[in-house]
Amino acid sequence: MGSLLDGRSLLPLYAERYKLYAINMEELKKRADELERGLNQALAKLRFEELEQELKSLNNQMAEAGFWQDAKKAQATARRAGDLSRRLEPWQKLASDLKAIQELLATKDPTIVGELTLQLDGLEKQLSELQTELKFQGPYDDHDVIINIYAGAGGTDAQDWTEMLLRMYVRWAESQNLSIKTVDQSPGEEAGLKSVTIEFSGGDFLYGKLVGEHGVHRLVRQSPFNADHKRQTSFAKVEILPLIDRSDKVEIDPKDLKIDVFRASGKGGQSVNTTDSAVRITHLPTSISVAIQTERSQLQNKQTALSILRSKLVQLSLEQHADNLSQLKGPSQSAEWGNQIRNYVLHPYKQVKDLRTGFETSNPEKILDGDLEPLIDAWLDKAA
């Protein structure tokens, strides 16, 4: 009798506990439904289905016989497929894990409430982290990048400043484990570089992250190139271009191109080779010119120059909001006072200030050593 009474006395406790489990399961279902809504919104913004179809098409191309006969095109296709696969996999896994949780919630098994709570916590965190991709909505944000840096006003100091900027971007790329390729460079007479072209690849959303670096950069410091170490202001122009390595992405009318070949030469004018292998391509409607002489093959230099020209035209079309190449006008911004996007001051005080986002720091050495993440984040937040 005593044991029966004890059991009856526990019934309200069991009922209360079951009610609590039911409430918890209902809360978990609401969280899962909210997570699904957020996931679907993110996938729509990412054009997820469109990217899946593109990846499927690329995989079909790579499975075709003779795919590797055109090595350059094959490498570009394989790289794009790898980038897409790496980008899509986390979203696919998140969707799959969420579906599994929803199936378990449908069983209404009260014994798994604790486990499902932990799993939902993890998925909500994953979605929050993945949603940073929503900042990259530009048509070329997921492309690799070409960076051109040109010395502007400031003489030898400007050429030295160009080399300092090159080091800054290379150090950032190294911290991101990117592949770095020097495409072309022109040394200064005394120091530094007149111009340099580099290519970064192997990362996510490189153009989207770095496009905020596009513009004129101004340096103020005590010049190391005069005896009195007077304060000197110098300028360099940075171009951030999406890498367009396929001709079908941007079709250029051959009649709009002027192609010149000349003999490549190194610093001081010494001959690099004895054939006319260097190539200069000018896009006549915009007067944009690209010269490449790093390769010994005229054909390779021409292909590289065309790739950079396509990238320049795409960047120009984005700046001028043009739908086609016929609407483009030549670029006009010069690397001098009044055009800068960012100031780097090393003397008489220390400061880096971005004039568009308002970001500033009193530690320019850290920025110049490649710590660009705060500047990138400030740009993305403003552009969002």
Low-pLDDT windows of residues: 1-5, 267-272
Q: The biggest beta sheet, please?
A: 8 strands, mixed
Integer count of domains:
2
Apparent shape: globular
Q: Do you know the CATH architecture of the largest domain?
A: 2-Layer Sandwich
Order of helices and strands: HHHHEHEEHEEEEEHEEEHH
Strand content: 15-25%
N-to-C CA distance: 71 Å
Mean of residue pLDDT values? 86
Any idea of the CATH class of the largest domain?
A: Alpha Beta
- SS field, number of helical segments: 9
Strand order of the largest sheet: 2-3-1-5-4-9-10-11
How would you characterize this protein structure?
The chain is α+β, with helices and mostly antiparallel strands and 384 residues long. It has two domains: 2-135, Release factor (Methane Monooxygenase Hydroxylase, Chain G, domain 1), CATH 1.20.58.410; 145-383, Alpha-Beta Plaits. It is 46% helix and 19% strand. The chain is built from nine helices and eleven strands. The strands form two sheets. An eight-stranded mixed β-sheet has the order 2-3-1-5-4-9-10-11. A three-stranded antiparallel β-sheet has the order 6-7-8, covered by helices on one side. Strand 2 and strand 3 (193-201) form a beta hairpin. The protein starts with a helix and ends with a helix.
At a glance:
With 384 residues, this protein is α+β, with helices and mostly antiparallel strands. It is built from 9 helices and 11 strands. The N terminus is likely disordered.
